[in-house]
DUF2150 family protein
Amino acid sequence: MSTPPEAFYSEERWQNWIDRLKAEDIDPEDEDSARLLLNLQDDAAIAVAKIVSAHEEGELSEEEAVEELAEVREIVLSDVEVENEETAFLIDGVQTSLVCVFAAAEEFILRGASEEATVEEYVHAAADAEAEEDFDAALGYCAQGGTRIIDGEDLDVSVGEEIEYGFVAEWVNGLDSLQSAMRDPEVIEEEDED
């Protein structure tokens, strides 16, 4: 049941994306910059989706799947040294979005899909918890919503527009990437590698 190391994601892969972001003059209003940031996020979400799928298909035990997730999380959420403050801020936003992707995947692997509410209801519960400054509960609700997405329920992205900008809005952004990754786990090619 063992998968070769770095089969799902590697430090080198993450670093290639970061190097590309450093090399570009990132402007979130610019379509190419926005796409590059989204690709960085989606690429990591695809790795998470593949780990979940490998566990579902019996290729990884629960323990192995959680370990693989932890390895990818460590790569993706480690501090990134970027001199450009705006680029650093945008990468931090991507990392924040991905926190929920990892939490949802781990919750799903350990406990399966949460059955008490719909994705949207979990997101609204998370927004309420964030308003109360209970961030642990907010993340928990978002992660439970994420387990529903992994289980096949669709997230209506407009739900993100209904909530104030903050952690939950970032996490919903991550859940959108997770949804795309679960439906179409095709690896995003790192263009123009020269």
